[in-house]
From TrEMBL:
Residues 393-404 have a biased composition (Basic and acidic residues). Pfam families: LtrA. The keyword Transmembrane applies. Keywords: Membrane, Transmembrane, Transmembrane helix. The keyword Plastid does not apply. Residues 373-414 are annotated as: Disordered. The chain crosses the membrane at residues 21-40, 46-68, 80-100, 106-125, 132-152, 158-175, 187-211, 217-240, 261-280, 300-317. It comes from Kitasatospora phosalacinea. This is Low temperature requirement protein A.
């Protein structure tokens, strides 16, 4: 098979394969382990550990989405490598609970194998060999920091793993990223599936929190309200057909800007979304275990802060890709965060009920204003009509008035 046949094009439909969906099941376990770790150590130090573990894991997990976008797992060889990578991620997930207590070296060596498999697969993607070698070398350097930290443990481990996280942030600017032709449909779909997988952890946390508690009115109502908040987060991400809009927005960009937008929105932006789900799941576990008793501030903050962070990250994504109104979502995030005292002074049942009401009001208001948004957007020339430079605003996180007219009209209505 030639490089031309292997290299993806920006056009042409590519859907997520069953093997990729199977691969995502391991990520459910990763999120479960990180949630359990945070629940047992809900302190600033425990949160810092989860932050860096999620960062280094998500970086390479997302890298496998990139490589499947370049070389879909359609042959036995590619499928075998994907399954090998999946097994390594399973070992990483298993080592999460003790990653900072004597198990960091296992995490690190499994992480190294994940990188080796990924680099080998990417070498067949039709990307210039020098770029692949540079990317692989930088990822291996990050793995070296993780392995070394695993042997040192404690504070030095956290410091080195944080350095690995920092290295990840600059890697896209040190490799030949603009030459990679990303397929928008597959890329957007895969990240949407990962978000759904993460929501599954919230549902698991609800069940774990209740445990063997008798299903009286209070725990049942709390579980239903926690699920309602999950539905609200789902609605924030999927409810306004943002996936289809994102595919169109990404497809209109040239390769260089599309790839940089992919890093900002789907690597960094979705890192924040996943962290938000972990925080909410941690709070939901406590809420369902003690539905009518006041809970401690960290648990109440996790409950409200996770929801608020998800709305803020989702707002950033919508703003970057000009998907729709954003101001109401930021206001709702602030109001959700303000429900924290309800959990500490009253009970999580009341806190969840207030959060559910705020989310319902948000989406009801957006739905009522949508016809006005659509009308304003129809009167404005689309960004695509401005030519290949029409979406140049994606080069910056701060869009300001450089956003396309459709985005400005949406914010005026929302």
């Amino acid at each position: 098979m030639t490089d031309r046949e292997l290299a993806p094009t920006g056009d042409g439909e590519l859907r997520a394969s069953p093997l990729e969906l199977f691969f995502d099941l391991v990520f459910v376990f990763v999120i479960t382990q990180l949630t359990a770790s945070l629940a047992h150590h809900l302190t600033p130090g425990g949160l810092a550990r989860v932050l860096v573990m999620l960062a280094v894991i998500w970086w390479m997990y997302d890298a496998y989405i990139w490589v499947a976008n370049a070389v879909p797992p359609r042959t036995h060889g590619r499928r075998g490598l994907m399954l090998l990578g999946m097994g390594c991620f399973l070992v990483i997930a298993l080592s999460v609970p003790r990653a900072f207590d004597g198990g960091g070296e296992v995490f690190g060596w499994a992480y190294l194998l994940v990188i080796a498999v990924h680099t080998g697969m990417f070498a067949t993607a039709g990307v210039r060999p020098g770029a692949v070698a540079r990317m692989g070398a930088l990822n291996l350097l990050g793995a070296g920091l993780v392995i070394t930290g695993g042997y040192l443990r404690g504070g030095p481990e956290l410091l080195l793993w944080t350095a690995a996280f920092g290295l990840q942030l600059v890697i896209p600017y040190l490799v030949d990223l603009p030459r990679f032709q990303l397929r928008s449909d597959h890329f957007v779909e895969r990240h949407g599936l990962v978000v759904i997988v993460a929501f599954g952890e919230s549902v698991i946390a609800i069940g774990v929190g209740i445990g063997e508690t008798e299903l009286t009115a209070a725990p049942t109502a709390t579980a239903m309200l926690a699920l309602a908040v999950c539905v609200g987060l789902w609605w924030a991400y999927f409810g306004a057909d943002d996936e289809e809009k994102a595919v169109r927005a990404m497809a209109r960009l040239d390769d260089a800007r599309r790839n940089l937008a992919a890093i900002k929105v789907y690597n960094l932006g979705h890192y924040a979304l996943l962290l938000a789900v972990i925080l909410f799941a941690t709070g939901a576990k406590t809420a369902t275990a003690h539905p009518t008793s006041a809970i401690h501030l960290p648990e109440a903050l996790a409950l409200s802060g996770g929801t608020a962070l998800f709305l803020c990250a989702n707002t950033g994504i919508r703003r970057t890709l000009a998907l729709g109104p954003t101001r109401l979502r930021l206001l709702t995030a602030a109001l959700v965060l303000a429900t924290t005292p309800l959990g500490t002074q009253l009970n999580p049942l009341t806190q969840l009920a207030s959060t559910t009401a705020l989310l319902a009001l948000l989406f009801h208001t957006e739905a009522r204003r949508q016809p006005a948004v659509d009308a304003l957007a129809a009167e404005q020339p689309s960004a695509a009509e401005h030519g290949p430079r029409g979406l140049r605003h994606h080069d910056s996180d701060e869009l300001g008035d450089r956003r396309p007219p459709v985005a400005l009209a949406a914010d005026e209505a929302g």
